[in-house]
Design brief:
The protein is of the alpha+beta class. It has 2 domains: 189 residues, no CATH class; 94 residues, OB fold (Dihydrolipoamide Acetyltransferase, E2P) (Beta Barrel). The chain is 26% helix and 35% strand. The protein contains 6 helices and 16 strands. The strands form 4 sheets. The protein has a 5-stranded antiparallel β-sheet with strand order 2-3-1-7-8, covered by helices on one side. Strands 10-12-13-15-14 form a 5-stranded mixed barrel. Helix 1 runs antiparallel to helix 5. 30% of the residues are buried.
Length: 295
């Protein structure tokens, strides 16, 4: 059976990754997001093949993946033609992920218009700035359905101003095809998704550590005691209090309403008040990544 190998690198740039390391709290969602996105597309577009996604190296500023794909060319001809990529099934799948990233950056999480292009099997998408791009119909269908939205959000989740400034995905196939796309930290909001919620608490107290804040929206991320990174929205009456405490390196007690998924795991928090807590309650005291995006 013919073998296709594609080398994929997920490269993150910024002060926090110059030494070639990345915190597990950032790295795990990235790996989960890319593996999930690739797996969903492979199962749909190339179900007759076996795809193996492996980590083969970690280098300064990047995490490098290799794909081993075994398939028959005639089984993938339709996928390759639809994606408009010279190469095999794995290359076409990565091309779809990259095109989804491009259209997310183009639309900017804002209203857009769509129309059938003159090019067969192609859709034109016009964003709120009246700029248009074309994309293959099958890519647009995945984009519109939002099938990979949560996965793409995980891939760009480590981006934070002054800490991890950019992410780049690059794929190189054995026949010389090179695909590449880059996401800057300012583009991260274009990938934000709303998590599905099944239950919420009444107002309660939690001990957390703040991770980031964007002043234009009073939104950011925080860490729970178990190390889980959760998004929050400040809904209190004094946002200045939040801005002052974002630089605090210790634990905080927040008054909040927590939103949880079907496993009763918090996915988002509305914060109404917060105050410092004496003592170190976190098992991992490392933080060093609080941002103040709109200072």
């Amino acid at each position: 059976m013919p073998r296709e190998q594609v080398d994929i690198s997920l490269r993150y740039e910024g002060p926090n990754v110059k030494d070639g390391t990345m915190s597990l709290q950032d790295a795990v969602p990235v790996l989960q997001g890319f593996a999930s996105a690739y797996g969903k597309l492979a199962a749909f577009e190339d179900p007759s093949s076996t795809h193996h996604l492996r980590i083969v190296a970690v280098k300064p500023g990047s995490v490098l993946f290799a794909l081993d794909v075994w398939t028959y060319l005639n089984e993938n001809a339709g996928v390759i033609q639809a994606a408009g990529v010279i190469g095999g099934a794995a290359t076409a799948i990565v091309a779809t992920i990259i095109r989804l990233i491009r259209v997310k950056k183009h639309v900017r999480n804002e209203p857009y218009r769509e129309q059938i292009s003159q090019t067969p099997n192609t859709i034109t998408v016009t964003n709120s700035q009246n700029v248009s791009i074309e994309m293959p119909l099958h890519v647009y269908e995945v984009f519109k359905a939002g099938t990979l939205d949560a996965d793409l959000a995980k891939i760009v989740s480590p981006l934070r101003v002054g800490h991890i400034d950019a992410a780049e995905i690059e794929a190189r196939s054995a026949d010389g095809v090179v695909l590449r796309e880059r996401v800057e930290v300012a583009e991260r909001p274009y990938f934000e998704v709303t998590e599905s919620v099944t239950v919420s608490t009444q107002r309660t107290s939690l001990v957390v550590r703040l991770n980031s804040v964007t002043k234009s929206t009073n939104r950011g991320f925080l860490y729970l005691l178990d190390g889980t990174r959760v998004s929050y929205t400040y809904r209190g009456e004094d946002p200045v209090k939040l801005y002052r405490l974002i630089a605090h390196d210790g634990p905080l007690r927040i008054e909040c309403v927590a939103y949880m998924d079907e496993n009763l795991k918090p996915t988002a928090v509305d914060v109404y008040d917060l105050e410092k807590v004496q003592g170190e309650l976190f098992t991992d005291p490392r933080r060093g990544d609080a941002d103040d995006d709109d200072a």
